[in-house]
Amino acid sequence: MHVKAIFREVEKLLEQASVPSPRRTAVWILCEIIRCSPIHLISREDDRLGRNQVIRIREAAQRCAAHEPVQYVLGYAEFRGLHLRVSPDVLIPRPETEQMIEIALDAVGPDGTLEVLDIGTGSGCIALSMKHALPASQVTACDISAPALQIARNNAKKNGLDVRFIMADLMSCDFVHTVGTGYNLVIANPPYIPDSERSQLPRMVRNYEPGIALFCGDDPLEFYRVIADKLGSGLLRQGGTLVLETHVDYADSVGTLLQQKKDVLQVQIEPDLAGLSRFVIANYSGENHPVRGRTQTTAT
Ligand code: GLN
Predict the structure, then answer these.
(1) Which residue's alpha carbon is nearest to atom 6 within ligand 1?
(2) CATH superfamily placement of domain 88-284
(3) Which of 36, 209, 275, 290 is the most buried (most CB within 10 A)?
(4) pLDDT at 299 over 70
(5) Ligand 1 lined by 244 (C-beta under 6 Å)
(6) Quick check: CB of 214 below 6 Å from ligand 1?
(7) Protein residue with its CA nearest to atom 9 in ligand 1
(8) Distance from the alpha carbon of residue 199 to the mean position of ligand 1, in angstroms
């Protein structure tokens, strides 16, 4: 069978199954299995494929047609140029989170020697991107999930990035003791989807991605409140920065709860690429270290 024919077959199957972006998914599957880059696929369209390759392509296509995310089917995702292994033990890194890295880098400015903590690292995408962007920094990543930490550790190794991984439960009273204090930057993308929204999620997310990384029960502010409370235990050093990804409906509430904290001097809300309030940046006791860069909304 030729590349062109199997490509058409896969694209049609995905289209009929109403998989979002059927063409892009078909390209991804083929490129992975015949080992070529998307720009070279067209020049390979008359190549004849081996029987095994055809079987593997069809198997992958069937799984995607059942709305399993292509990243789980092929076992990896790309995030800010990093090749990351993913499995259903970790969330598939999202473009919003790539944007949060830019916001965090902007907020901390050019000082490259920071101590950074990523809470709830999952695949390690945030921690590894920070280490990649700021190689002289010390990056610590924690998660409650042992299988997620295993994946994140492997991703660090495969990408040659030296990050410290710690198993820690944000909700436990010894969290700060476990992860340490005095960070310059704390960054997190905690679970923020209320259980009541579960049924509205695409089935690709609902049926395959880890609930522990997505759902926050019935209090959408709980994780943020706990992070804000831990600031008082020395998690951030003076002048440190907190950068959080939030549900679009709750960015303002997260901003407000941080503003109410004694030593939080400045809070900004930033929109995502769709223009929806998505990120909250807070500066901790930072009279001499104002939040840098963006100033869209500022309240103290
Ligand atoms: N942005 C993710 C989603 O839509 C949710 C991530 C999270 O809960 N932290 O599906």
Answers:
(1) 214
(2) Vaccinia Virus protein VP39 (3.40.50.150)
(3) 209
(4) no
(5) no
(6) yes
(7) 191
(8) 14
3, amino acid identity: V
Whole-number Å distance, alpha carbon 192 to ligand 1 midpoint, is 7
The whole-angstrom separation of Cα 60 and Cα 54 is 10
Where is 271: in which H helix or E strand?
strand 264-271
Residues 22-51: pLDDT tens digits? 999 999 999 999 999 999 998 999 999 999
Q: Is residue 224 within 6 Å of ligand 1 at its C-beta?
A: no
Classify burial at 13, counting beta carbons within 10 Å of its beta carbon; exposed 0-12, middle 13-18, buried 19 or more. Answer: middle
- Summarised one tens digit per residue, pLDDT across range 179-233 is 999 999 999 999 999 999 999 999 999 999 999 999 999 999 999 999 999 988 8
d(CA 200, CA 229): 31
Which residue minimizes the CA distance to atom 1 of ligand 1? 94
Q: How confident is the model at residue 296 (pLDDT cuts 50, 70, 90)?
A: very low
Domain boundaries, the chain: 3-66, 88-284
